Request: fold
Amino acid sequence: MAPAADKRSFAQDFFFELMRDSQRVRAVYLAERERWIRSLEISGREEILFELEMLLRGIDRFFNLRNLFGEIQPPQDRDWREELKAMRDAVHRSAHLSRKLIVQRQEQALIFRSFVEGSLSDDRARARLGAELREQRTPEESLFLLRAGLVAHQGILDHLLRLDAAPLSLFLDVGRALQHELFVSRYFCPPSALEFRTEYDRVSSVRLLEALRGMADEKRRKAFALGLLAAFRSLRSLRYVSAPPTPHTRRVLVILSLVRSELQALIGYLETDLPRLCATPAGVGTAAQAGRAAAEPIRKTLADVPPILSHPLTDRAQLDFQRDKLVAATKEAIGAIAETLDPDLTRYELFDDGGARVEQSERLRRDLWVFREMCRHTAQRLEEPGSSPEAAEPLRRYATEFRDVGYQLLRHSDRELFDRFLDLLEGWSGRRGESTAIRMQRLRDDCRRFAEILDRALEMVGKRSELKGREIDHADCEQTLAKVLQSR
Reply:
């Protein structure tokens, strides 16, 4: 068996080359963007970028009616305001995410330039300053320009939604305007279904990486890897369609339309391109059979599962059913490819490692318990007479530790609330214009509210199937809490 370092080298080198081949048209901009994202000292930057570009791809695909209705023609008199609300939600979230990726110093400089441009009375000088920004010389400028456009479109949508009705022509015109906004972006033009990004696209299985590495034919290996990358990207996107009891946002319609679009493209790749790319003078070998076997569960699901908008948008059960069926079909497709690469690989081994799931869930449950008790302890300390800001230091230290382990075990749909509180802890002492007493009072209230959120999170983790019949180890939790409180 190859050393671990060799495995890492294989994965990095092979997938870097593969992704570079898939994005040759804009390789210069994307290479510069990759260097920029690596230099950002922003927590979770790759995940933020993935969600941003997922939504940008979704915004583009949402206006293809086949992704919403399949082959069914919507009624001519349909009111499209609900779809426009879903689009406004996606645009709003995209603008919010883009702001997270610009460091404060750069943000202030770009805002100042924009302010100066709008304040100049000389149109020639204003045009010169605006042209500099529109050149998009850096990823930050490109992202700022994209965000400004998205914010403007959000404002337009806000006003359009005050209309008594929105016809199809209006819906499609909004789509054309938004698509133009996206595709003039040099650094953040949304990738196509089979165009990948080194920052976040992954084949998240060591066993599959080992199976790919064992393939002697490099052309064949790349062909199968492309299919796997596309499938794992769809699985990752579906994590943003939250499971009960977390409420759905309207933008889940945009995400589901994107996944249906990309899975349809994956079917075409598996059935047509995979055999062609693997072809030899002797024929296509097992590639054609493997492609058909992997495409079949996806094709069947897309045909059997009703299109997204065939039911009322408020039908939570229909959207959950859609997500679950698409996840299952994508996993079956990955399993079929895995079986071709290595007959000993099974879907169970790839996705249902029970021992690892139990260990992860128990660790998460313990970390959430300790986090909850730390929040309660900090709130109590901050309420004591004569308390000082140092009373929050143990919680801040534990929050840093939690980011390294417990946070990584959270299901993605649960992370947003944690992000808000963890960011608050990191920056609360730097708030300007507020007295120390007011800042301490706000932190105390935030700690109490977040303790309640952690209480509910603990309850939900405890209901996971892998923890059924397993009581929480209170002695271990108490011991961990004591160590955290004693640490300096």
The chain is about 70% helix and 0% strand. The radius of gyration is 25 Å. Residues 354-486 form one domain.
